[in-house]
Write a structure and sequence with these properties.
Elements: H1 8-32, E1 36-43, E2 57-65, E3 70-78, E4 84-91, E5 105-108, H2 109-112, E6 125-127, E7 131-133, H3 137-144, E8 148-154, E9 162-165, E10 169-170, H4 172-193
Antiparallel strand pairs: 1-2, 1-10, 2-3, 3-6, 3-7, 4-5, 4-8, 8-9
Helix pairs in contact: 1-4
Length: 194
């Protein structure tokens, strides 16, 4: 059984539908979903200026919604050498490099979550309550320019035991929409050539 070829009208409608669907998917993330997110692993190897030998690890899940100017943070850690003293997001100065430089605190996760350091019993495993903050324009810029990092300091390593560089990624919905729009434009250009 062979497929019946589409008429010129049906092909044009298919292209328009693809373009419309793609455009809607590009707009939809701002209406229903985060603009970007980040899943950041933390380790002692990322501490600067000198790495820390530790079994400690952690994860920061970060989501940003521009309609609400809301940054949602979910931070957890495990196997730290001692109890947590600080949990912050810091940002290096413009032109700096998050992998090699240090910067000032821009968001105090421990304070925002209501935790008062030292957090007793937090060395083995700890998950901060999920918090949502309204970041300033300079904090957003630091995050988007990949100049921000998350750090957890402990009683044994007060300047930081584990750290992770925050790298925002566009939401998957936006990428899907962009792909569909690109496919629609490709089909449109291809049709003009033939």
């Amino acid at each position: 059984m062979s497929a019946t070829p589409l008429s010129d009208c049906e092909v044009a409608m298919s292209r328009r539908s693809l373009i419309l669907l793609g455009a809607l998917l590009l707009v939809a993330p701002g209406l229903t979903k985060a603009d970007w997110n980040s899943l950041t692993p933390l380790s002692g190897a990322s501490i600067r200026p000198d790495a820390v030998a530790t079994a400690g690890t952690g994860t920061l899940k970060l989501t940003y919604d521009s309609l609400q100017n809301a940054l949602t943070l979910e931070l957890s850690s495990q196997s730290l050498s001692s109890d947590i003293l600080l949990a912050t997001i810091n940002a290096v100065a413009p032109g700096g490099n998050q992998r090699f430089d240090n910067g000032p605190v821009v968001i105090n996760i421990a304070a925002a979550s209501g935790e008062i350091p030292p957090i007793l019993g937090s060395a083995a495993s700890f998950t901060f309550p999920t918090v949502t903050v309204n970041p300033s324009a300079s904090v957003l810029q630091a995050l988007q320019e990949q100049r921000a990092y998350v750090i957890i300091g402990t009683q044994g390593n007060p300047n930081g035991e584990i750290r992770g560089n925050i790298i925002p990624e566009p939401s998957s919905m936006a990428l899907t929409g962009l792909g569909i729009v690109a496919m629609g434009w490709y089909l449109r250009a291809r049709r003009r050539v033939s």
